[in-house]
Specification:
Layout: H1 4-14, H2 21-44, H3 49-67, H4 73-95, H5 98-124
Helix pairs in contact: 2-3, 2-5, 3-4, 4-5
Length: 128
């Protein structure tokens, strides 16, 4: 379970309320990737903190899910992917499965790269 202090720290890091949506999404995905790295590191050293890192990654994922507008086909697909990622993290947590964590990390990194590309394209688009 995430503590109030951990949640406050996560919100300060993301600062989602004042960030442009693409920036918030990119920061959340980067934070998830970092938490998954730490989780894999701790799991490899049989350190019980790996579950805490996984839970923090899930908290960032829940923030992404809350930001997703599922009223479009694309948004619904993205939300479905986030749900799959969450279910895979739950399975990884129950079975201490490093392969499942690595699978999620691949998905997160791919999404992060795609959103960063979209962000760069948005910045380069001239406004008329």
């Amino acid at each position: 379970m995430i503590t109030v202090k951990q949640a406050a720290t996560a919100y300060r890091k993301m600062n989602a309320a004042s960030l442009p949506p693409l920036t918030a999404v990119c920061q959340a995905l980067a934070a998830i990737d970092q938490q998954l790295d730490e989780s894999l590191h701790h799991l490899g050293h049989q350190d019980e903190r790996w579950r805490d890192e996984l839970l923090q990654a899930q908290q960032f994922l829940f923030e992404l899910m809350a930001m997703t507008d599922a009223s479009s086909v694309e948004g619904e697909r993205l939300l479905t992917l986030y749900i799959y990622v969450n279910q895979t993290l739950v399975t990884a947590s129950l079975k201490a499965n490093a392969d499942a964590i690595a699978e999620v990390q691949e998905i997160v990194r791919s999404l992060h790269a795609d959103w960063q590309h979209a962000q760069r394209k948005q910045m380069m688009t001239p406004y008329i």
